[in-house]
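Handout, section B. The chain below has 365 residues.
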Amino acid sequence: MHRLGRLSSRMLMAAALLALAVLASGLDLAAAQTFKPEYKMSVVPGPDTAWGLGAQRFADLVRERTGGRVNIKVYYSGQLFAGQQTSEFQLLRQGVADFSLGSTINWSPQVPQLNLFSLPFFFDSYEELDAVIAGETGRWITQRLAELGVTVLGWGENGFREFSNSVRPVRRPEDMHGLKARVVGSQIFIDTFRALGANPTAMNWSEALTAFQQGVVDGQENPLTGIYIPSRLWEVHPYVTMWHYTIDPLIFAASSRVWATFPDDVKQIILEAAKDAEIYQKAVARAGLDGGRSVQILREMGEPVAIEDPIAFLEERGVTVIQLTPEERAAFRAATQSVRDRWTQIIGEDLVRLAEADKAKAKSQ
């Protein structure tokens, strides 16, 4: 009996081990099946912009470092949101888009606090923006987006938004009077241009390009290296005013629904890929506009620098580039004070004060 009992115990133990092995194998198979054949990444402009290049770099790094398990396809030129770029955030929340390199401008209709970055003449330098994103303000925004179903992976940049037009040089607020200007579909931009006496019209970028060519819209506001140069706007807008009136951060993000399906090791790989893509993307966006720092970063990375001096590049093509003095920029800031006052209430006074404190840290360094 004892021998039979020992045999039965051994058989039970072997059966249990076999069952565990089968269960573990099943779990491994299930984990492998959680990866979709393709993950969709939404981007507003085309592939040849700093924005598009950054998104593709992120997708390539993720695919390479996960051994192809996470295969991200970048959908350029607003393909996923059918031209309605302000609906991108909702698509990301719903998991229709899995990833995005999205603009805070386009997400602001659903997240009003993101209008912080669109307060006219609020940011004076790249250093101030970097301090805000890396500081308490950036952490607050990351938490808020998480509450809304979007996971922040890192930050990119479209750049300071400058003004170009086909009518005249703009150096004073009065020069804006009567100009019909394309702006994105966010009310703070409409308010800002109305405060300057212009006639703003909101339209998607694809429609705007046609309007510029036809001459039915006089001007637009966008980053120099991010949009103006890649879109060859010097062919229709020979006047550019470097006024740095707002800055356009981008956010590497994932739908929280999709993010929850990844195991921890894959999450870590994706976060590291976003960090590396962020360094590259920001350098491309700032190249030639930050005293040579970004050009040096790209050289150290072994990356080509297509245009080392964007201002000289445009002047060689007949563009009149107006560089505002501090006093001239102050006049624009004064003319838009009412916009900052109104939108500070919408964004939240506490968040704006938090950003002011983060900016002060950059000035003290």
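Note. The radius of gyration is 25 Å. Compare this with the example in section A.
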